[in-house]
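Box S1 | Example of a co-folding query
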Amino acid sequence: MTETSNAQWHDEPTDYDQAGKLPRLRSSSSNAETLGSLNITAAATDPELLDLPWHIALEQWPASALAALPRGISRHIVRFAHLGGSVIAVKETSEHLARHEYHMLRKLQRLDVPCVKPVAVISGRTTPEGEELDPVLVTSHLKFSLPYRALFSQTLRRDTLTRLIDAQALLLVRLHLIGFYWGDVSLSNTLFRRDAGSFAAYLVDAETGELYPELSSGQREYDLEIARVNIAGELMDLAEGGLIEEKVDPLATSELIMDSYRRLWTELTEKESFELGERWRVGARIRRLNELGFDVEEYVIKTAENGTQIQLQPKVVDAGHHSRRLLRLTGLDAQENQARRLLNDMDAYRADNNPTLDEEFSAHLWVNEVFEPIVRAVPRELGGKLEPAEVVHEVLEHRWYMSEREDRNVPLAEAVQSYLDDELRHRRDEAEIMLTSDAKPRSTDDSRASTAR
Ligand SMILES: Nc1ncnc2c1ncn2[C@@H]1O[C@H](COP(=O)(O)OP(=O)(O)OP(=O)(O)O)[C@@H](O)[C@H]1O
Ligand SMILES: [Mg+2]
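Box S1 (continued) | Returned holo structure for adenosine-5'-triphosphate
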């Protein structure tokens, strides 16, 4: 377990009047009339927060304060705004819900679960006329993340959908492992980032969530049922709008989450028995879990009463096996599938160049000779299209396909140029697609981007 994930679920106080508040504004402030009673709870003080127009209802915020990024469907009013050099998401809600969600997200962050990062709760908002405005929850915008409806521009293909559902199932398993009951699992309450041809899912809406020391199987099943019903509804909605491949059956597809979740849960937690002579199976189980992207931090091995059998049960599993190895070897921070992909290339590079070279040194050479040159080759204007690790993954794929097609070993520099010209340049800028538009929507007619590969 990492240091952060040692936090206990009950560490975080849930009384709503805790330390960490920004000082109240003094009456000498130029904004004092409108901000006088503003109450900000934040983990780290970011004075620029005070520059935002909290005295105006979110729906009426001026375009100059807003960031045009794709946003999913929501009951509450949610807007993206610029804060210094970054972007925040602001949601107008009740004080109780805002505080509950803020604390829940903080706990989840500490437990190392993929979710959006909470920034502040702001209450006591009033208009200059003295009319009360709803409190807000502020989170930081998750870079390169997209709501599921922005992952395709024309129709959602079945295999893209399957990958989305697999990512959602993995997120749910990770949440359940740490004792989090979500209560409102849905594609809309999840954000997706591209992850080496698959997706990595992040929790975005923790409003209904609760943390327990452990979940019962009844609680897990209930959450899973909510997921199935919500996903079915979301897919039916897409089908009605002609936004999904016709051959996709919404109900049958929503069942996929059950299989995907149960398979993973069993693999991660199941007690396994085998003969004493088959001790090698302990190592095999652990390798299988590593392959799935988990490290086994703790397990229990018991011998059965008759002494001829052993039982193995993983106790604490921690996601991020490949990301951690990549980080340790190179300092690069990537998502799990990206890391797996990059590590494969790094291992192949070592085998091709100098198999006896120290692993860390070889990794360092790989960063200098493969990773960095690819990232540096991306022109500035294309830099916002994809995360660097995703670009490197795509270039490596592109090179592989090119070499196959042309039956020769295509040099890296040539593959990079061909990728930039033939692929990246034609990709739509995902960050610019507006779903729920605050500004005039851009056209989203590039079908190339409609699917992950
Ligand atoms: N930090 C963030 N980064 C990126 N997108 C975000 C962030 N916070 C919110 N969003 C976007 O805003 C949408 C709505 O947020 P959220 O689900 O929290 O609102 P809600 O009104 O509580 O939703 P619901 O209708 O499920 O109750 C999300 O689907 C997501 O697209
Ligand atoms: Mg929501």
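Residues 217-240 form the longest helix (24 residues). Residues 187 and 234 are 7 Å apart (CA to CA).
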